[in-house]
């Protein structure tokens, strides 16, 4: 399964590395790509269930909320 989440606060390669390492450590995640041009995170994972909210929550705790959710 694959999901794409557009985020805020993506500023540098260090941010992308933090996101990639943190999401890659989650169970079932097989691939994480961060696109600086679109400020989006592309996540591939095992299973058929929609886990976009789970991934979005993890990104938020890292300081990268979904676009439009930054308070």
The major pleated sheet works out as: 3 strands, antiparallel
CATH architecture: 2-Layer Sandwich
The number of strands is 3
Taken in chain order, the helices and strands follow as EHEEH
**Helix and strand composition category:** alpha+beta
CATH fold description: Alpha-Beta Plaits
Shape: globular
Number of helices: 2
**Span between termini:** 30 Å
General description of the model:
- By secondary structure, this protein is α+β, with helices and mostly antiparallel strands.
- The chain has a single domain (2-61), classed as Alpha-Beta Plaits (2-Layer Sandwich), CATH 3.30.70.
- Helices cover 31% and strands 25% of the residues.
- The protein is built from 2 helices and 3 strands; from the N terminus they run βαββα.
- It has helices spanning 13-24, 52-61, and strands spanning 2-6, 29-35, 40-45.
- It is globular, with a radius of gyration of 11 Å.
- The termini are far apart.
- 18% of the residues are buried.
